[in-house]
């Protein structure tokens, strides 16, 4: 074998190695879509990426977490009307907006508590947070009369927001909106 043929073989071998490495990287690279976080677990511990990550098969697992703002509505009308300090109950509707910051610590807190699948499932979040939101609405309503709720709904909303903002498993409360406040007699639908 002469030197020219050896050079061609070596060049071909190097090119094959380089192409196989590029193919491996492309196969193992997981890009993040806008509005999502990638959580890579496995060897090296959990890592969060908002752009993309490389996960080696058998060593890492990658899950996507939706970072969109979630709206959880609580309907307190009819037989679910809130008891007030005195007199009639308050029938109202409330909407809570939960967000998740593009912060690795917050993402790891949420995924550690709920997992990516459950944290991205609107129905699971509604089931999880509705009792907490309902308790905050009830506690704030017990401190006021229906007339006070109608006169200053912003103060009621602020009190509810303060009550629920503490432990949301890594989520942040972006807003609380209370609307359709009306007086309801106890036991009436």
Topology:
Elements: H1 3-28, E1 29-31, E2 36-42, E3 47-49, E4 52-54, E5 60-66, E6 70-76, E7 89-99, H2 104-114, H3 116-119, H4 122-142, H5 146-151, H6 153-164, E8 172-184
Assembly state:
single chain
Count of β-strands: 8
CATH class of the largest domain: Alpha Beta
Kindly report the average pLDDT value. 91
First-last Cα distance: 96 Å
Number of continuous helical runs: 6
Ranges with pLDDT <50 over ≥5 residues?
none
Structural class: alpha+beta
How do the SSEs run, as a string of H and E? HEEEEEEEHHHHHE
**Strand order in space, largest sheet:** 3-2-5
Profile the largest sheet.
3 strands, antiparallel
Level of helix content?
Answer: 40-55%
Q: What Rg is obtained from the alpha carbons, in whole angstroms?
A: 27 Å
The dominant shape is: rod-shaped
- The CATH architecture category of the largest domain equals 2-Layer Sandwich
- DSSP strand (E) fraction? 25-35%
How many domains? The number is: 2
CATH topology of the largest domain: Tetrahydropterin Synthase, Chain A
CATH superfamily of the largest domain: Band 7 domain
């Amino acid at each position: 074998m002469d030197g020219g043929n050896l050079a061609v073989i070596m060049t071909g071998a190097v090119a094959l190695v380089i192409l196989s490495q590029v193919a491996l990287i492309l196969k193992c690279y997981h890009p993040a879509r806008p509005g999502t976080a990638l959580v890579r677990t496995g060897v090296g511990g959990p890592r969060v990426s908002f752009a993309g990550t490389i996960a080696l098969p058998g060593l890492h697992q990658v899950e996507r977490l939706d970072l969109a703002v979630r709206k959880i509505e609580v309907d307190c009308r009819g037989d679910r009307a809130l008891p007030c300090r005195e007199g009639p109950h308050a029938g109202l509707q409330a909407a809570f907006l939960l967000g998740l910051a593009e912060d690795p610590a917050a993402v790891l807190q949420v995924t550690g508590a709920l997992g990516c699948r459950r944290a991205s499932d609107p129905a699971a979040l509604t089931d999880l947070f509705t009792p907490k939101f309902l308790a905050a609405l009830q506690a704030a309503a017990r401190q006021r009369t229906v007339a006070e709720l109608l006169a200053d709904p912003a103060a009621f909303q602020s009190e509810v927001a303060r009550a629920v903002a503490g432990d949301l498993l890594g989520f942040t409360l972006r807003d609380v909106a209370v609307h359709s406040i009306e007086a309801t007699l106890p036991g009436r639908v």
